[in-house]
Each structure stands twice: as structure tokens, then as C-alpha cells.
């Protein structure tokens, strides 16, 4: 099992999760985070830290696509280990549906 980030993170990018991760497996895009599924040790400490409920175990139904999504972008984006402010629109976008199609950016974040 591994944990992955879903589209709930897009346009929010809360980073509460990165500071509790013992193996630094979070990677930062312009408007979301991902977890490298091969680096995650399945400890689960990140899941309750996410205000947007965007971190899920890969054992939930329909998560296969998100595992590959997280793998792809974690190999392209820089690692992030330090908490940052969420995106300005985070509160307005939290829980919104269709965020992948509406807002997702493949651009890398700054990391750090």
C-alpha cells in the first residue's frame, strides 16, 4: 500500500503534510503536491494533516490512475519538505469538483 494525492489538492496546495513525512516523498507542482508511490513507506501520518482531504490510500477504489499520476509528476517536480502558505484561492476551491480539468498545471513548483 502507498498513499497518494488526488485532485482535491489542485488549486489548494496545503503543505501541512510535508512536514510530518518521515521520508520526504512529497513533490511540488505549481498548484498541487504529489507523493512518490515508490518512496512512501505507508506510515499514514500525512493523511490526517491534509485540510482538503486530498491524501488517500491506494487501496481505495479507483485510485490506480492517481498512483500513476503521482508517480509521473513526482519524477518531474522538486521535493518539498517545508510547509508553505496555501494558494490564495485554497478556501474557495476546497471540495470543488472537476479541478483536474479546470485548474491542473504540469509546471513544477519551487520545492524546498
From TrEMBL:
Residues 1-30, 31-60 form the 4Fe-4S ferredoxin-type domain. This is Ferredoxin. It comes from the Bacteria. Residues 85-112 are annotated as: Disordered. InterPro entries: 4Fe4S_Fe-S-bd (IPR017896), 4Fe4S_Fe_S_CS (IPR017900), 7Fe_ferredoxin (IPR000813), Fd_C (IPR022569), FdxA (IPR054829), RnfB_subfamily (IPR050294). It holds the Pfam family DUF3470. Ferredoxins are iron-sulfur proteins that transfer electrons in a wide variety of metabolic reactions. It comes from Roseivivax isoporae LMG 25204. GO terms for molecular function: 3 iron, 4 sulfur cluster binding; 4 iron, 4 sulfur cluster binding; electron transfer activity; metal ion binding. Its cofactor is [4Fe-4S] cluster; [3Fe-4S] cluster. Residues 95-104 have a biased composition (Basic and acidic residues). Keywords: 3Fe-4S, 4Fe-4S, Electron transport, Iron, Iron-sulfur, Metal-binding, Repeat, Transport.
